[in-house]
Amino acid sequence: MKAFVVEKYGKDGARAAEVPEPTVGDRDVLVKVSAASINPLDKMVRNGEFKQLLKYKTPFVLGHDVAGVVTRVGSAVHGIEVGDEVYARPRDLRAGGFAQFIAIDVDDVAPKPASLTLQEAAAVPLVALAAWQILIERARVKPGQKVLVHAGAGGLGSTVIQLAKHLGATVATTTSTATEELVRSLGADIVVDYTKEDFSKQLSGYDLVLDSVGGANLGKSLTVLKPGGLAISVVGPPDAAFAKQLGAPSFLGLVMNTLSRKIRKQAKALGVRYEFFFMQANGAQLRKLGTLYDSGKLRPVIDSTFPFERTLEAMAYVEQGRTKAGKVVVTMEPGND
Questions:
Q1: Model confidence pTM above 0.70
Q2: Could you tell me the pLDDT band of residue 334, with boundaries at 50, 70 and 90?
Q3: For residues 260 and 246, what is the distance between their CA atoms, to the nearest angstrom?
Q4: Residue 323: is it exposed, middle or buried by C-beta count within 10 angstroms (0-12/13-18/19+)?
Q5: Residue 206 DSSP SS3
Q6: CA neighbours within 13 Å on the CB side: how many for 201?
Q7: Distance of CA 116 to CAs 63, 110, 145, 152, 243, Å?
């Protein structure tokens, strides 16, 4: 089958290749891929940023979001049948959405939301799961709380705004002038145009800040939290809990704590908390999220669509910061540009 594989770690390490169809284990479903989407995680894995923690063996197929049709099921699979339309974020070490077929553990798969096309559904799993796990599991957001979401027009930010609003939070976001109308339509109550204003001088008393920008932006984010508030970053620096989540040796936990010592010290001095976040595959959560998409509480935001043959171009498009809003989707359907 055709696939895009990481042959070696680095910016030029991915290429198109012919690879064998994946084997299907007892608990696996084989999915004929209809569409996939690009995530920053694809670049990070391709570049080897997690190679000490995620032990992929090169060459491996890239791609962390997928939607398609089930063509085979393992002997121990129940509840998913051949012909079902599904979507998934395959678990770590089983990525492979940039291919014609992918074998996925049944626990990571959910029926595609009925209201979404397969192309729309491919834009959803990773960012929707991240939003769910951050807002509901980590931060336990309650009605009336205040949430700041950076980069609100992005794939993750646009999803977090909608889910936080559904949970009853007051939502602030940072974005550019061009996407202010979009983020307001998604439910943002307060919009700070980062090209004109400093959010840290406009906002205060927040329960949660979600940072996907990093650097100085993360440090400033701590200052808008109320005492005991929580800043969560998806871009780092990582902490010991991340190493533990991936089952890494204890010494790597110490390394992670060293990397995040400065920001954790800043947080402690301000009486707030800092955590790094790395989402996990979860088909049961995708089923719950599916009902939110079907009820209109959530909607995917898609920037553009590329044909499968141009997957590497789609990745470059995202890496170069050319995305205006939402996700970039790669589709197997002909005639999409």
A1: yes
A2: low
A3: 17
A4: middle
A5: strand
A6: 5
A7: 20, 13, 30, 22, 35
